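Researcher: I've been going back and forth with a colleague about how Serine/threonine-protein phosphatase 2A regulatory subunit B'' subunit gamma might be arranged in three dimensions. Neither of us has a model we trust, so I'd like an independent prediction. The organism is Notodromas monacha, in case that matters for your notes. Sequence below.
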Amino acid sequence: MDLFEKQLSQWKTSSTRASVPANPDRVPPFFYRVPTDDEILRQKLREEARAIFLQRRSRNLVDHDELKELWILLDKHSEGSASSDRRKINYRDFMKVAEVYQDKCKSYFKPSLFAQLVEGDPCGQVPIISIFNYVMRKVWLQQTRISLSLYDATGQGYLTERDMENYITDLIPTLPQLGGLEPSFHNFYACTAVRKFFFFLDPMRAGRVRIQDVLSCSFLDDLLELRDEELPKEAQ
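Model: Here is an independent structure prediction for Serine/threonine-protein phosphatase 2A regulatory subunit B'' subunit gamma. You can compare it with whatever you and your colleague have in mind.
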C-alpha cells in the first residue's frame, strides 16, 4: 500500500508539472509516450485498460453456436439445389438475415459484400457458402488479432521476438499435430517459427513486426492449420 501511495503521489506531481493552461495558440498534446520501466503505476493502468478493452472486443465476437445458427438461417432463406453447399440467396433474403443478426453480424452483412460476391450471377443470387466462409474468416481474423494483442507488451500494435516466441510457445499445446513433439523441443520449434516470421516481415531488422502484417501473411495460417487432427504429416 505504501508503494502504491508513493507511486500515485509521484504521478500526480509529474502530471501537475506537465499540465499547462489552455491556450488557443498552443498545439494540444497528441502523443502520449509509453510508460518506462520505473513508472509502475502507469504501466499497470495501461495493462489493465488494454485487458478490459480486449475482453470487451472478445465478448462482441460471433461464437460457435451463433455461427451454427447463422448457417441454419442462411439455408432457410436460400433456394436452389438440395445440397446446402450449392444453395443461393437473393438480396432481399440476405437483408432479412442481416436484420436477425443485426447486433454481432451487422458489420458483415453489408450491401457491398453482396455486390462483391454476386459475381455476375444472372439471377442476382449469391451462394450461401460464400457468405458463410466470409463471416467465418472475419471472425477468425478478429479472434486471432485479439489473441496476438494479448502479447503486445506496449499496446502499440507490434510484437517483438520475445512476444512472438511467448505466443507460439503457449500455442503449441493446443496444436494436435505437434502432440508427438518432445517438450524439450518446444523452445526450438518456437524459435524456428519466430525466425521465419521475422525474416520475411522485418526486412529492416527493427526487432518487431506489426500484428497486421502477421495476420495478412500465410505463415500464421500454416501454423494454425496444425490444429487439424487429420492434417498430413508432410504439412508439419
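Researcher: What would you highlight for our discussion?
Model: I'd start with this: Confidence is low (pLDDT under 50) at residues 231-236. After that, consider the following. Residues 147 and 185 are 23 Å apart (CA to CA).
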